[in-house]
Design goal:
Two copies of one chain form a homodimer.
Chain A lengths: L2 E5 L4 E5 L40 E6 L10 E7 L14 E4 L2 E5 L3 E6 L13 H19 L6 E8 L11 E7 L4 H17 L3 H12 L3 E4 L3 E4 L10 E5 L11 H22 L5 E6 L15 E6 L6 H6 L2 E3 L3 H9 L5
Parallel strand pairs in A: 2-15
Antiparallel strand pairs in A: 1-2, 3-4, 4-7, 5-6, 7-9, 8-9, 8-13, 10-11, 11-12, 12-14, 13-14
Helix pairs in contact in A: 1-4
Chain lengths: 341, 341
């Protein structure tokens, strides 16, 4: 028997249909194993020695004595060479012609080249390398936040073809926009309504409920809890939530960076071990928007890590309902029963 | 220079970034050409002779004198063997436990086996065959509409791996739910607001605007107009809209079925010719929901045909913004400049 479960955070019904995992497929689904894992690729714009193939750095962590846009870095952030948005555009110009409304493509689109290695993702990196990725996200958000035209900046990551990555070298991206994205607005609305009705943060309450129920917890440390949400939209989806209420990711401190880094490493290893191969995934951070007047009391920042094991199909895209073929209780049970080293 | 364009129908901003089509890719993107095109596959549950591999028919168009669930059909509709929802579930039972809310998976999930041929899709079918597909959708919607527990039924189609198809044999699906899907609610809200403000149907106005501007029209016939919407969320997206206001697809008549059938055929051929190969796509019908009291004045039914040429990635799924790499003006220009026969 299948069931609808309500995602309180987005006010959306999800369909849980584990029976559908058994259906036959004759259309090739590809494989999650990437080709051979090379450490360096001469044609990759993100590999060391190819610094001039990217736009100039906006941030880099490098060995002392090495110059900008040369080798010697351990992490680089550059503007996307093919940006979706540009800071030289003018966000205020709304042009309206009958029913056709447009705004110049103002914004920022940056790429965080997470490591020098062409193929080591979170599951293969050292914890210290992952810490640097997290610090780089924070550094860039602090900088983008200073541009008062920006209302939101989404940190996200696409890993593997199924997750929409066009380049294999591990990287994350940041896109900053002059308006608050739809998905963020939905969460803001749910969290605000709940706060107004109860005086409590919705995600604090959901986290407490998950911890009490216990069936979907994957990992816990001092700073964070990782769990497969009760109303996960897709299989093996993992939510990483700070244990203490905080509205913005940039409030993260040194201990929490270490804890999050450790969690990214171990959760990625669990996923790869359970699903098999190098699991394609998306990851994003949901933050309080940068309104004129940021109320920090009701929004609780969090990270969603979404393995992309199936294609989004016509029903999902055409209706907005998601069908999940793996119960989150079962996903969590499998993820926690794995030995990782 | 990129730009934001507002989709008035869903009240969503889309990012138009044609420059991004030029970016390099080293992650394999697969190919749109399917393997060899076979007319019959002994293991395919949708091929003739394999009728007992599916649940029993709920509808079939067959040659006179042939019995149910045997050969002799030209089109069959069966319950999905691995249904996301079931009519034997009880839609009213909302079970709430703290923040965990669920409803039994009530609904219908049907498969329209569109043709006997394992590999002929709209672009290869006869017009008469496509007409039968459209009549079958109508017959099934009329039947599902009689179950007063159903609030919406989405007709949709997944063709090709990138579009989420698990079986290659051309088929469409219908999923009926006890609640109105999120995407439909968004359109209802936009159309209702516009109607309340202007006394006009929003989609009538948008269609008029597209016809007047003229740059994005792909095809027109007596009953329908096909165009690449001004704020298309993805490349080569095509909207098919009835020229006369009507709130529900089931109001379609014989002339319109012929016109729509012809349009599916020619639009599919145009897409395949321009993009190359057999283009993976999703298609869905958006209808007025089956509220208790259906106001038919403001909702205008329509079809969206969405080629799935790229993967939805972290930015799209995490923010709700879509990035389109092909301007709809350019898509329409290419689609209309093709000779089809």
């Amino acid at each position: 028997m299948t069931e609808f479960r309500k995602d309180m955070l987005t006010n959306t019904w999800i369909i849980m249909a584990p029976e559908r995992a058994r259906r036959p497929m004759d259309v090739s689904q590809g494989s999650y194993l990437m080709e051979e894992l090379t450490q360096w690729d001469q044609y990759c714009p993100f590999c060391p020695g190819n610094e001039l193939m990217t736009p100039p750095e906006v941030l880099a962590y490098r060995k002392p004595g090495t110059g900008s846009n040369q080798e010697g870095w351990t992490l680089r952030v550059v503007r996307n060479k093919y940006p979706a948005l540009s800071p030289s555009a003018e966000p205020k110009t709304v042009k309206k012609e009958d029913l056709r409304e447009r705004i110049e493509g103002f914004g920022y689109h940056e790429v965080v080249i997470e490591t020098t290695s062409h193929s080591r993702d979170f599951a293969q990196m050292d914890i210290g390398e992952i810490e640097d990725v997290i610090w780089a996200w924070r550094d860039r958000l602090l900088s983008l936040r200073a541009d008062k035209r920006v209302r939101y900046a989404l940190v996200f990551k696409n890993y593997g073809h199924n997750a929409g990555a066009s380049l294999g070298h591990p990287h994350s991206q940041i896109i900053a926009t002059p308006m608050v994205p739809k998905k963020i607005k939905e969460e803001v609305d749910s969290m605000r309504t709940y706060y107004e009705n109860t005086g409590e943060c919705l995600l604090c309450a959901m986290l407490h409920d998950e911890k009490t129920d216990g069936k979907r917890i994957v990992e816990e440390n001092e700073s964070f809890t990782a769990y497969c949400p009760y109303a996960s939209a897709s299989a093996y989806e993992i939510m990483i939530v700070p244990n203490q209420h905080a509205s913005e990711f940039i409030q993260i401190n040194g201990v929490a960076v270490k804890d999050l880094s450790q969690m990214f490493w171990s959760v990625s290893r669990r996923l790869n071990a359970v699903v098999g191969g190098l699991v394609p995934y998306n990851l994003w951070i949901h933050n309080n928007p940068w309104w004129q007047d940021c109320d920090t009391s009701f929004f609780h920042w969090h990270i969603e890590l979404v393995p992309r094991l199936t294609q989004l199909a016509g029903f999902e895209v055409g209706s907005g309902f998601f069908i999940n073929h793996t119960l989150p209780e079962e996903a969590a049970q499998k993820l926690t029963s794995i030995e990782i080293a």
